[in-house]
Amino acid sequence: MKVLVVGGGGREHAILYKLSQSEKVTKLYCAPGNFGTRKLAESVPLKVMDKEGILDFSLKNNIDMVVVSPDDPLADGMVDYLEKGGIRAFGPCKDAARIESSKIFAKNLMKKYNIPTARYETFEDSESAVSFVKEMDTYPVVVKADGLALGKGVIIAHDFESAEYAIVSMMENKKFGASGTKIVIEEYLTGPEVTVLAFTDGKTLVPMVSSQDHKRAYDNDEGPNTGGMGAFSPSPVYSEEVAEICMRDIFMPTLEALNKEGIVYKGVIYFGLMITKDGPKVIEYNARFGDPEAQCVLARLDSDLYEIFDAIVERRLDGMEIKWKKEKACCVVLASGGYPGKYETGYEIFGVEQAERVGAYVFHAGTGGIDKCVTAGGRVLGVTALGKTLEEAILRAYKASAHISFKDMYYRKDIGRKFV
Ligand code: AMP
Ligand code: GLY
């Protein structure tokens, strides 16, 4: 089988890594890919939003399956477009991807089907949003842009002034463009956050092993929000009991809700959960693997990822056994100085091979270059290691990271530390 993966980050490198282990896969392509994916897959110089280009390439090269990995092309309907053009695609269709591309759609779905989540109201004009916050007078309060905003569309406001500022900058000043035309204002929840990714073909849903992301830029969860600075798997707070509650009250009800709305969801659902004292609640859904959660979760996958994708596309996930390694995993993200704000690129990266000799997988995220590997993004590498215990996985990931360097590199030193 010839498989094309759309995307060019650490998550896509991890997907390619697992696909490359499949006996069914003969050739891999990645659009656009990065310096690291080139070892596994031929790079295709197409943008992730270029659905015409992706379809054209797939038809000309007899691609058997396109894996649409990032949020934007999913929200834009790339899967629908490819299928219409006669190419098999893995990922949710445009309608199904709304669980991520519209927070209002997701919240209304949860409310209608009694899926536990933070209480909320939606707004289409800033005046009523501001007076609602004033009337409620409870802080912190959470202000969320309806649409996709690179993970930056969520503001936790600690007083009226900052809530008002968030509302006005989203709705009036268009800080996130059209994504902030409508907003959600919701109750602030507290508790540990856990990510559970699940495979589903719309009939059967199989949760993957749990994981935890670290969204803030600096140690001790300080600094600005990022796409994710590191992850580990499994999450110690995600006990079997919590898992059962989630399956009963969140995962299956979400699948049933989608079905009742006439939506066939095929792909990966990302459940962003908060384990509150009143039980697990949904913070967000995503229509894809998380990044960097995927790097940890896929490193622990023992089964053939192509076979799973194939079963989902053909809607025969039922009865398929998905096996996981007992080992735990940790991924440390090495980032460009300045990220998630402004940063420079083009710096040479040293020490990747030495890091891999320690027994880590170095998944490339923002890398490029022709002969030598250089930085090309904010999150540059995801150094991922397995270990018998979480502690061993963490130690190995850090030991490997210590071999790598590039100008202005920084990374969090406390990934998973709370739990060892
Ligand atoms: P999201 O993009 O929806 O995942 O939000 C980004 C981050 O904001 C989450 O990972 C949480 O840490 C935080 N967050 C979002 N919604 C809430 C909420 N209702 N209460 C507390 N924190 C939240
Ligand atoms: N790591 C969070 C996300 O992928 O949305």
Give structural notes:
The chain is α+β, with helices and mostly antiparallel strands and 420 residues long. The chain folds into 4 domains: 2-91, Rossmann fold (3-Layer(aba) Sandwich); 119-187, Dna Ligase, domain 1, CATH 3.30.1490; 193-319, 2-Layer Sandwich (D-amino Acid Aminotransferase, Chain A, domain 1); 328-419, Glycinamide Ribonucleotide Synthetase, Chain A, domain 4. It is 31% helix and 26% strand. Helix 1 (10-20) packs parallel to helix 10 (293-299) and helix 7 (126-136) runs antiparallel to helix 8. The termini are far apart. Adenosine monophosphate (AMP) binds at residues 118, 142, 151, 154, 156, 186-189, 193, 215, 272, 283-284.
What can be said about this structure in brief?
This protein is 31% helix and 26% strand. It has helices at 10-20, 51-60, 71-75, 78-84, 94-101, 103-112, 126-136, 160-171, 240-260, 293-299, 305-313, 352-357, 390-401; strands spanning 2-7, 27-32, 42-43, 65-68, 89-90, 120-123, 141-145, 154-157, 183-187, 193-200, 205-207, 212-213, 216-218, 222-225, 230-233, 267-276, 279-286, 328-336, 361-364, 367-368, 374-375, 379-387, 409-410.
Which short descriptors sum up this protein?
23 strands, 26% strand, Rossmann fold, binds adenosine monophosphate, Dna Ligase, domain 1, six-stranded antiparallel sheet, five-stranded parallel sheet, single chain, binds glycine, D-amino Acid Aminotransferase, Chain A, domain 1, alpha+beta, 420 residues
